[in-house]
Design a protein that fits this description.
The structure is a homodimer.
Chain A: H1 7-23, H2 34-41, H3 45-51, H4 55-73, H5 87-99, H6 101-108, H7 115-121, H8 137-160, H9 167-180
Helix pairs in contact in A: 1-2, 4-7, 5-9, 6-8
Chain A binds a DNA duplex (30 and 30 nucleotides) through helix 1, helix 2 and helix 3.
Amino acid sequence: MEKKLDRRVKYTIMMLKDALVELMQKEHISKISVKALCERADVNRSTFYAHFEDQYDLLHSIEQEAMDNITHYLSRQDYTDNIPVSFQVLNRILVYVKENAGLFRALLSDNGGSNIQKDILKVPEIFDFQIYNSQGERTKEYLAVFAITGCVSILQKWLEDGTPESTETISDLVLQVLYKGITSFR
Amino acid sequence: MEKKLDRRVKYTIMMLKDALVELMQKEHISKISVKALCERADVNRSTFYAHFEDQYDLLHSIEQEAMDNITHYLSRQDYTDNIPVSFQVLNRILVYVKENAGLFRALLSDNGGSNIQKDILKVPEIFDFQIYNSQGERTKEYLAVFAITGCVSILQKWLEDGTPESTETISDLVLQVLYKGITSFR
DNA sequence: TTGAAATGCTACACTGTGTTGATTATAATG
DNA sequence: CATTATAATCAACACAGTGTAGCATTTCAA
């Protein structure tokens, strides 16, 4: 962790992050130039390069911050259930996501680059696949990527459409399709 | 459909497509300059602009061609089973994908931009969700994106790792996790 | 063989990049 | 408040990729 006591630095970085999230609502990260980003944030381009290498570096910083918030958000939970992800945990995440819909709409959309999906996969507090020890290692890996991308895609659509359903509705939907499969909806 | 009888045009476009697929094995489409692409393809930059607007235009053309091949590949199938996607259909796709592993590794990887996933979603021959008419429209949409992205992510991993498993193994895995959920693997 | 079309070649203005050094503005400290 | 440290701004720079244009050259199809 870095110490950023200086108000100027915090303000600059905040402006840059907000600007990137805004721009990423409409266009892909690769199409966002450092120049346009700085103009939107009203920050000098030299200042940008003093803090980040490029847009992707800034985006990664935003993703990191979001992931830290989520993990911290989940730090005090109980692991009583013997399932990869519980309703309680999932719904708590969704509440946080919905509260920061703009941010996650940018991070999870096609405009992001989908790096964050792999980060989510690595958070053991969310998905616990150790209970599938009877399966081979590769099968577990396949199940993991299937589960996380499937869930994230539902969140993507949910966010793109303006989170019309409640977090509980989405949580139930995700858990049912994940555990029981799509045929359980017949 | 356009007619491209001239050998020169076909050769040029083939070289460009091959070059882009090659470059996309290692770097994101946004990082591939038209200049580098043309150098790799040994095609003049002016010639490139005579056919395509930019890298993305060329990529879209490649995706289109691949989708056309898949749909044509599936044109003569029987719809006897009452399920969204049958083993027969899925396995036939996987055979085609495995035969063109390099191409689909590029198209389906993070280096692509994941446009093709939405194209796949629109092919009614692959996923038939009409049998879920008892469900609400939004639920069906959620199930569809969940199914397609989950399946594609498995294919991505399969391709990245060099398609070590047989097409039948992957087909079985996909259908089981899709229909019965991950808990069926306990 | 010949006309048509595709490709190659060169040059051009334009834009964004990443860096540098000097200057201004502002935060932190005693 | 005054001093010091440092962050942000500004102007300028070389560099690279873009998209376009005109003209020369090569290749194809008839």
